[in-house]
Amino acid sequence: MVVQVVIGTQWGDEGKGKIVDYLSKDAEYVVRFQGGNNAGHTIKIKNDVYKLHIVPSGVISGKIGIIGNGCVIDPGVLFEEIDGLSKKGIVPRLLISNRAHLIMPYHKLLDGAEERYLGEKKIGTTKRGIGPCYSDKISRNGIRMGDILNKTTLSSRLDQILPIKQRILKAYGFDEVLDKEEILDTFMVYGERFKKYIADTHLVLHDAFEKGKNILFEGAQGTMLDVDYGTYPFTTSSHVIAGGCAIGSGFPPSNLTDIIGIMKAYTTRVGEGPMPSELFDDVGIYLQQKGHEFGTTTSRPRRCGWLDLIVVRHACILSGITRLAVTKLDVLNDLDVVKVCIGYRLNGKPIDYFPSCIQDVSICEPIYKEFSGWPEFQCPKTFSDIPKQAQDYLRFIESFLKVKISVVSTGPERDETLKV
Known about the structure:
CATH architecture of the largest domain: Alpha-Beta Complex
Shape: globular
Number of helices: 12
Distance between the termini: 22 Å
CATH class of the largest domain: Alpha Beta
Number of strands: 20
Strand content: 15-25%
Largest sheet: 10 strands, mixed
Helix content: 25-40%
């Protein structure tokens, strides 16, 4: 029996969907434990491309997918995603925690209003209501998946919450009136649609563990977007690190056996906030174009830079990462020089850690180690088929982080993945 957790080690978009798909062949359950449809996982299998936002990636391989209590769910998006998979011949085997919170119409209105209010200081959210939904969860004003199974319960919750939201919207200059009956009717339809999926998923996972089933936990976003340990306040609203797995699924941390960190061979970021190794030159444009660095969820162009090993080490420490999977190594092909950030200068002094203060991060100057580039390679079958310069690059990453690389992705296809 194996219980694995997949964690993003950077600012998200590390290729977790592909690695989860690769690892899920040996799993029976694949579990999302945080985030919402602000995340996006892309899986390419021959001529088929699957873009998932809330459904766990493992359903593509026929596994049982679980959306845990730590997630927030836009039922309209989930409805469309399930139907989209069905049209491609995949009927997802899905379970949803009755404790997962629902993104309501007013959450999306508030998300856009708050970003507009912040102006130049905006966070750069996807405006999908994620942050306001998590805020309501913490302030105990949320609506959970189980609430839409009972009209009386949902009606009572709306009576309590809607007057508050109406006043907040008015303060932001919104004239839109929240229609309780319309919201109630819409979400009761969702309740009917999803009732066959809703369950006490933590009990399902407990039973699976007791029976010796293999379980794979799938994180969304990346460590640098964690609400506590990321580049706060330019973060997501949930716990992205491995500790969030236990909270967001009800699965005991003592039962986790393997924590896999996914890292891109360079660094990218979507949205606002500092990124010390960001490139503003032709190399940055090269990485963006060759790596097709545009968001799965928003299509926003990703900011690109050299690999930042201070960031990845930060992630390894926080999540106790036991091994690494490196993605998009092929994007670095044909560069004369490849650089890696191995430290920062802050106010003229070298440091080897990621600062907590966002103002400090914004003035950190990267300290680089240079490597010789390598020629184009295609479809290597073994690690030794990769050019020697690329092998040296990967071995340095291992030695710096003191964590073994066990998987290398050399292209978007499912079979362009090497065990090391």
